[in-house]
From TrEMBL:
Record-given protein name: Renalase
Superkingdom of the organism of origin: Bacteria
A Pfam family of this chain: Amino_oxidase
Catalytic activity: 1,6-dihydro-beta-NADP + O2 + H(+) = H2O2 + NADP(+); 1,2-dihydro-beta-NADP + O2 + H(+) = H2O2 + NADP(+); 1,2-dihydro-beta-NAD + O2 + H(+) = H2O2 + NAD(+); 1,6-dihydro-beta-NAD + O2 + H(+) = H2O2 + NAD(+)
Organism: Azorhizophilus paspali (Azotobacter paspali)
Enzyme class at the top of the EC tree: oxidoreductase
Family to which the UniProt record says this protein belongs: Belongs to the bacterial renalase family.
Length: 329
């Protein structure tokens, strides 16, 4: 008997895998602990509009990814962002324009994952805590003790530390997954009553607690928002202040931003902090995806390739290929 394939995680990796399996005629069932899709590409809805607190944009180097990106653009899910780019090092702010094409979801980052999800079946606000073998097939259990299944295969598309726990039924696979550590990042959004008097749309930052700052409302589709900026702390600073209360994180990163941006920065009228506990994988791996195909357990995510949107999407494609090849063999 055939049962659906469970996919845990509706970030870009999980949705890439789900789309490829669905296109191959297989039935999938998605789960996510979040209230919507996107994971680290999600946008937070706030009183000042939807804010991209995770991925800021994505670039495209792989030919297969380039084809998908063109389709997404044609469907209106993404648009090219042409920021006025700067860099800041040793307190010096300089223009740093380049030729790179940068894409963003429009009118918010999560528009892309909403589009990819389409009408595939999904259960949100459902934190899976266990993947276990029933009589013959895989079952899932959530944090409330509710069971789901049976499933023929399970694809775990979460950050590596969460995936390692879910894959405990395949110890060798779980130990490979657990070998990829992930670094945290604090992200802060600040809104100002009047637009800041600066030409900067995005800035790569060194020698500061911050590594990136960008004008959220300057991105395509977000013009109706007040002047809102997203600031991202580097992993070193984040590790040091991992448990700082949010108000203090906002205050400190506001201070670092005001020092860096080179114009008067009034008190913000809105501030929000978000901690990404598993923001960025340490190192790049050329794995594509990992699996114990004989057991029917699979894993994908940015941590299998590069810690970027493109790496996550490619990993989702790789896991789907592995699964389809095993079914065909
Ligand atoms: C602050 C920040 C800035 C970034 N900026 C960029 C950028 O500018 N450009 C770029 O290319 N990349 C950027 N990245 C990286 C990019 O966001 C990721 O590489 C990519 O989104 C990862 O996708 P994923 O599907 O592998 O994982 P995720 O997006 O993390 O998706 C995993 C999903 O699994 C769900 N999940 C986890 N555990 C469970 C569970 N137990 N049960 C159910 N669901 C679960 C989560 O809710 C999540 O939706 C950034 C990341 C961060 C944190
Ligand atoms: N958890 C995380 O915070 C996290 C952040 N990530 C950031 O994602 C972007 C995307 O990386 P990608 O390789 O797709 O884009 P870029 O080519 O734009 O940037 C790569 C790095 O190259 C430097 N860079 C690029 N353009 C410029 C420029 N015009 N001026 C100066 N520097 C530029 C910059 O690195 P450094 O700051 O010099 O170290 C870019 O970071 C990228 O910003 C990641 O930091 C990815 C994953 C997780």
């Amino acid at each position: 008997m055939t049962f659906p394939i469970a996919i845990i995680g509706t970030g870009i990796a999980g949705l890439s895998a789900a789309g490829a399996l669905h296109a191959a005629g297989l039935e999938v069932q998605l789960f996510d602990k979040g209230r919507g899709s996107g994971g680290r590409m999600a946008s937070k809805r706030t009183e000042v509009g939807a804010l991209d607190l995770g991925a800021q944009y994505f670039t495209c180097r792989d030919r297969r990814f380039a084809e998908a990106v063109q389709q997404w653009r044609d469907r209106g899910w993404i648009a090219e962002w042409q920021p006025s780019l700067y860099d800041s090092a040793n307190g010096t702010l300089r223009p740093s324009q380049d030729e790179q094409i940068r894409w963003i979801g429009t009118p918010r980052m999560s528009a892309l994952t909403r589009g990819l999800l389409g009408d595939m079946p999904v259960r949100f606000s459902c934190r899976i805590t266990e993947v276990f073998h029933g009589k013959q097939h895989w079952m899932l259990q959530d944090a409330d003790g509710k069971a789901y299944g049976p499933f023929n295969q399970v694809v775990v598309a979460t950050p590596s530390p969460e995936a390692a726990q879910l894959l405990a039924a395949a110890p060798k696979l779980a130990s490979s997954v657990a070998s990829v550590a992930m670094e945290p990042n604090w992200a802060v959004a600040l809104s100002f009553e009047q637009p800041l008097d600066t030409p900067v749309d995005g800035c790569f930052i060194q020698d500061s607690p911050l590594e990136w700052a960008s004008r959220n409302h300057g991105k395509p589709g977000r013009a109706s928002q007040p002047d809102t900026w997203v600031l991202q702390a580097n992993s070193r600073w984040t590790r040091q202040y991992l448990d700082l209360v949010k108000d203090q994180v906002i205050e400190q990163l506001y201070g670092a931003f005001a020092e860096m941006i080179g114009c008067t920065v009034p008190e913000p009228v809105f501030g929000l902090a978000h901690r990404w506990l598993y923001g960025r994988p340490v190192g790049n791996h050329g794995w594509g995806a990992l699996a114990d195909s004989s057991l029917g357990l699979y894993a994908c995510g940015d941590w299998c390739l590069s810690g970027r949107v493109e790496g996550a999407w490619l990993s989702g494609q790789a896991v789907a290929r592995k699964l389809l090849q095993h079914r065909a063999s």
